[in-house]
Every structure is written in structure tokens, then in C-alpha cells.
Amino acid sequence: MPATLLSPELSIRPLAERLGAEILDVDLSQPLDNVVFAAIRGAFEQRLLLVFPDQHLDEAAQIAFSRRFGALEIHVLNQYLDTRFPELYVLSNIGPDGKPRGQHPDRGTMLWHTDLSFTRVPSYATILYGVETAASGGDTLFADMLSAYEALPDATRREIADLRAVHDLARSRIRSGDDPLTPEQQAKAPPVVHPLVRLHPNGRRGLYLGSHASHIDGWAQEAGEALLARLLAHATEDRFVHRHRWHRGDLVMWDNRATLHRATSYDTGRDRRVVRRTVVTGEVPVAE
Q1: What are all long-range contacts of 19-22, with beta carbons under 8 Å and residues at least 24 apart?
Q2: Is 288 a domain residue?
Q3: How many domains does the structure of the chain reveal?
């Protein structure tokens, strides 16, 4: 799709009909003036997913850009935090010897999820920077939860209108095969309940589920899991999904209130892959 001029300093290229855009001709390592930042924020509110190619960001620059959008989260999974910059959550398959260790750093990222939905106040935006990227694979898939909800049959929308899902990090870690939470982490991340249909600030409604959603509040476990699986299968059909193929220096940000995402596999014993993440605090999900 052709680029569209948003301001004298900024242009945008839509990536799909309703989801995603590539932002061109901007250097995020430098402070942004208010006009350019307002254009970026406006594009994000409209497109829900932004890609900034060919960036050269150190840790401080990524944090500074991220903070323009709001307060940053410190993740409960402290084993992934940068000891110098705790706002940064780093996923790397590089071992102490500097070589690929042949193990995925966080298998939970390969399941469809929305970041921090297991907290009472989940995240607004995730900002992910590709420090090193795999030669093949290691893509990120994004699913448009607003369009997926709007495509549901009327009967299904009525069925799920008032339902609430239990989101539980401990259960999703077990589901993915990752190391379980420590007792301290478990105490900081107890299960929470959120509306299954979430009202976005733009006035549209979307499905709010993913791998952290354990079951439906008040339902038998098996029945709730079955409904969540059925809705997830619908929401992640190809017609709702955009694939981002990473290049070194890409910075990608997405709206966790309106999307699901997951990573794809890569050769963890051959390819080096290092990404670092900041997460912007959001608001308590509401249905109305």
C-alpha cells in the first residue's frame, strides 16, 4: 500500500485493511517534537500496530520513547529483566559463552496472548525492539480482536456479552511448559477476572482472551476452556492476522487492548535472537 503523508516530517504505509502501519522517515533515537509524536500517537490509535524499521536504539532511548506513551511496567517475571534497566524485559537465546544455547527463552510467547492480562490493570501498549533477529522464523503474528468480535454471529455475541474470564499467569506458564512461578511471583500475580468482551476507548468492542485466560468465571472448567478455545480459533483465522517478519533494528508496538500476538519458532541452536520489550501501563478492562 502507498505511504500517506501525516505531517511534513512523517509518512505512514498501511500494512492491512484495518490493522497495522509502517512509520517511515523517523529516527526514534532522537527526541521527537510534539508535532511528530502527536502524529505517531494518532496513527497508533487508528492502526493499533506500528512498525518502525531501521532504528538504532540503546536501552535509554527505547525507554525514553516508551515513556512518552505513559508509565512503564516492571514485570513480575524478574528473571527476564535487565539488571541495569528494570523497565526492559529481555528475551535472548544467547548463552554465557556468547553462542546460541538451543533453547527458547520463553515458550509462552509462542501461544496467542495479550501482555499482562493476568494483572488487575493490564497493559496498554507493548514496544519491542529487535536487537538481533533470526535468519529464518522468529516472526510475530498479530490478531485483530476488534474485527474478530465484529465478525461473530449475533447469537454468539449475545451468548458471551456478560461473561468474564479468569486470567492466571501460573496456569499459562504450566500450559506453555515454562518454569513455574516462584512463590514470591505467585503472590504478586494472583488470578484476576476480566470481561470476555472488552470495550476499547475508540468505542469498538473486542474479544479479550488468550493463553492467560484460564476459564470462564462461574462455569465448569471444561466448558469454559471449550468456549475460549472456540473463540480463539475464530479470532486467529488468517483474515484477522498480520505477520511481522523481523529485521534487525525493527521497533514494533501494539495495542494489547485490541490485539493478540504470538511468536513463531526459529532455530534456537543456530540463529541468534535478542529482543527487548517495554510495556506501557493501561487501564482496568470494562465491558461498557
Answers
A1: 19/47, 19/48, 19/49, 19/142, 19/144, 19/147, 19/240, 19/242, 19/259, 20/47, 20/48, 20/49, 20/50, 20/51, 20/142, 20/242, 21/47, 21/49, 21/50, 21/51, 22/50, 22/51, 22/52, 22/53
A2: no
A3: 1
Identify the pLDDT of residue 9. 60
Question: pTM of the entire structure?
Answer: 0.94
| Low pLDDT (below 70) residues in the chain | 1-9
Residue 62 parent element (H or E):
helix 59-67
Q: How far apart are CA 168 and CA 263, in angstroms?
A: 20
Q: What is the pLDDT of residue 6?
A: 47
Q: Cα(236)–Cα(142) distance, rounded to whole angstroms? A: 8
CATH number of 57's domain = 3.60.130.10
286 lies in some domain: no
Residue 208, domain member (yes or no): yes
